[in-house]
Description:
The chain has helices at residues 20-33, 38-56, 93-102, 133-144, and strands at 8-14, 64-71, 75-81, 105-109, 112-118. By secondary structure, it is an alpha+beta fold.
Amino acid sequence: MTSTDRPEVILHIPADTRFVALARTAASxxxxxxxFDIDEIDELRIGIDEMVTILIETRPSDDCIHLTMxxxxxxFTASGSVESPETKPAIDELTSMILAAVVDDFELAxxxxxxxxxxxxxxxxxxxxxxxxxxxxxxxxSKRQ
Length: 145
């Protein structure tokens, strides 16, 4: 893929924990589109959850979190920011350990956060087709004879 083939999703969500699921869902949908496996998607969802939660903790609930996500066949990247945090975002020891376990790279710089998740599997998009119902029925009837 070329850099022009790398789609980007931009979300602006309220700085409220009720909307963290929206960010997780968008990230998992994008990773699914690029054939990340289920374990990689679960890890990515955890990473997004931690990133967005850190940013939410710095803002009043009437403000927005700005998220940008992009992916290609090997790497998913996400960044998030708040315009003017009330408190300085920080990563506690437990969150740092969680992020280190589920994503390849993460960084908190001022009021911005970024993470990267690289696929560990090297599968290609499947071009196989499933047998039709008619083929399955004829196969079953031939086995009975």
